[in-house]
Design a protein that fits this description.
- By secondary structure, the chain is α/β, with parallel strands linked by helices.
- It folds into 2 domains: 58 residues; 211 residues, 3-Layer(aba) Sandwich (Rossmann fold), CATH 3.40.50.
- Helix content is 37%, strand content 19%.
- The chain contains 11 helices and 10 strands.
- The strands form 2 sheets. It has an 8-stranded mixed sheet with strand order 5-4-3-6-7-9-8-10, with helices on both faces. Strands 1-2 form a two-stranded antiparallel sheet.
- Helix 6 packs parallel to helix 7.
- The radius of gyration is 21 Å and the shape is elongated.
Amino acid sequence: MSIAEALAAARSHGVARLDAQLMLAALLDRPRSWLIAHDEEPLDQTQGAVFAHWLTRRRDGEPLAYLLGEKEFHGLMLRLDPSVLIPRPETELLVDWGLRVLEARPSGSAGCRVIDLGTGSGAIALSIKHDCQTAEVTAVDASPTALAVAGRNSQALNLPITLARGSWWDAVPDQCFDLALANPPYIAAGDDHLAALRHEPQSALIALENGLADLDRIIAGAPVHLAAGGWLLLEHGHDQATWVRQRLAVSGFTDVQTLRDLAGIERCTGGRALPATTSAFRVVSPAV
């Protein structure tokens, strides 16, 4: 089977040409441009068998990131497997907000204690550490397999972080942080979107109480784990921003605000643990 024939097979399976090219590029360890210029090059028997298997999995809806075992996020190439969620571009909004919080500190990020609750692949924690090398970053997850993925990414990227196993704040008893970030499960059981996410770990997607249970637990436990002036930043569902703002406010947070993603959706909400000059809610659109 040649590269051209492999691409034709992908088309007959209903697999997008770009996806097929990316699979072949990974399989042959060549750039896509090389594939285009060498479409008569043959695949050996093993490569042909692997590609055929990948085509079947991709046709069945398995995400390309799981087939290739990697996904780019915030400029970092992360290794992945089906034990962790695939990092989404929308979550980069949360990371960027966290970086601005650190940059605004009088001493910058030096010695700043940061926690990523529900780290999965380590995407948020490692992105923060990459851009703020002097920050002390802790990554928490209840899943030992997810922590193993995060640990491998930490080593591969030479970005040292502390890994802690446990459910949300329970993993870090008696510890205090200057910045907490979380992209927890927030989809309600039975939500129509879950069908398209069936290959990803459901425990990292679905939350009880109409998708709000884990957000509620994180907010409830935050005050005793945040330093004075510390920020809690949360990613949430498209229709949950009002609830999150109200929950933060009644928990004593100030400067409560929401950021919209590039699609105009209220995507991330956060607040400070220290009384500030204003506690009015704000909804902020992304800079363009």
